[in-house]
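Progress against Task 2.4 (sequence-to-structure conversion) is shown through the following example record, which the project officer requested during the mid-term review.
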Amino acid sequence: MDFIGAYSFDHLKFLFQGFGITLLVAGIAIICSFIIGGAIGTARYAKIPAVSQVLAVGVETIRNLPLLLIIFFTYFALPEVGLKLPVTTAAIVALTIFESAMLSEIIRSGLNSIEKGQIEAARSSGLGYVQTIRYIVMPQALRRMVPPIVSQFISLLKDTSLAVVISLPELTHNAQIIYGQKDGYVIPMLVILAFMYFTVNYLLSILAGKLELKKA
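C-alpha cells generated for the chain above:
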C-alpha cells in the first residue's frame, strides 16, 4: 500500500475534481427530482381521473427497474432515436427519472398519512381543496417526510457512482483511473472514497435531524 504516492497533490486534485462533478450531478438531480416527484406525488394523492392512473403505472414501472438500466437507456438508447445527450446530462436525466419516481411515492404516502378528520374539518370551515392541501395537509406531511426524503437524497448521492459505466468523470471514475496506475493505490483510494462519501452523507443526516427538531 502506497498511501503517500496515492495521496499526492495531483491525485487529490483529480479526486476533488471528480467529487465536484458528483456533487453537481447529485445537486441538480435532487432539485429536479424533488420538483417533479412532488408534482407527481401530489397529483396521485389528489386522484385526478385518468392522470392519476397513468402516473401510477409510470411510477411503478420506473421503481421496479434497475437504475443502471435507466442510465444505459438515457446514454445509449436515446441516440438511437436521434437524441444524443452529453454524459453529464445523461447521468442527471437518468437519476432524475429514477429519483422522481421514488420521491413521488414518499410524498404521496406522506400526504395520505394525514388524518381524514383534519381534512374534513378544514373543508367544513370554508377552506377550498387546494387551500386545505397547502395550509393543513402539506405542512404536517412534510414533517413526516423529512427522514425518508433525506434518506433518498443520500441514496441518490451514492448512486451517482453508477454513472461510472458511461464514463462520467465523477469521484469513483477518477479514483479508478488513479488506482489503475499502480496496485498499491487500490486500498488508499477505497479508503478516501469511503471517507468522502461518508462525510457528505453524514452531514446530510445531521441536517435532517436539525430540520426535524425545528419542525417539531
